[in-house]
Design brief:
It is found in: Cell membrane; Bacterial flagellum basal body. The chain crosses the membrane at residues 24-45. By secondary structure, the protein is of the alpha+beta class. 46% of the residues lie in helices and 20% in strands. It folds into two domains: 3-47; 58-137, no CATH class. The chain has a four-stranded antiparallel beta sheet, with helices on one face. A hairpin with a 2-residue loop joins strand 2 (71-77) and strand 3. It is rod-shaped and about 95 Å long.
């Protein structure tokens, strides 16, 4: 029933039930429970990386920290792999890898292999005469 059609005594009983200390504690605990559920779901989504969905066309093959807020990534788009630099302000395409990182080396010694590929790619970009050097180790 609407509060307009209630008798003054019935309306007073309704307002007293809300201000009753037991119901205030119950409402507060219910609110805390809802907030705790929201935070726990947000933590689970972050923990299991639910927010980052991909179509499978692009993936990060390898990454390396280059500074406090800088990273160097090898991303795979289709069948091509690209070396990119990521800072807090920009994303820069550094190079396209001529010889993609193999899946075997990623599983076994990914960090060391990535470092060697990065050195080779950067040396080739700075001095094209060095481009062929170091490829005999692959």
């Amino acid at each position: 029933m609407s509060p307009l059609f209630l008798s003054p005594q019935a309306f007073a009983d309704n307002t007293q039930s809300i201000t009753n200390p037991g119901s205030v504690v119950s409402i507060f605990l219910s609110l805390l429970l809802v907030v705790a559920i929201i935070f726990s779901l947000a933590w689970l989504m972050r923990r299991f990386n639910v927010a980052h969905s991909s179509s499978g066309q692009m993936k990060v093959v390898s990454s390396m920290i280059a500074g406090a807020k800088e990273r160097i990534l090898v991303i795979e788009v289709g069948q091509e792999q690209h070396l990119i630099g990521v800072t807090s302000h920009t994303i820069t395409h550094l190079s396209k890898l001529e010889t993609p990182l193999s899946s075997d080396s990623r599983k076994e010694n990914g960090a060391e292999h990535f470092k060697q590929k990065l050195i080779q790619a950067m040396a080739g970009k700075m001095n094209p005469a060095v481009k062929g050097a170091g490829h005999d180790k692959d």
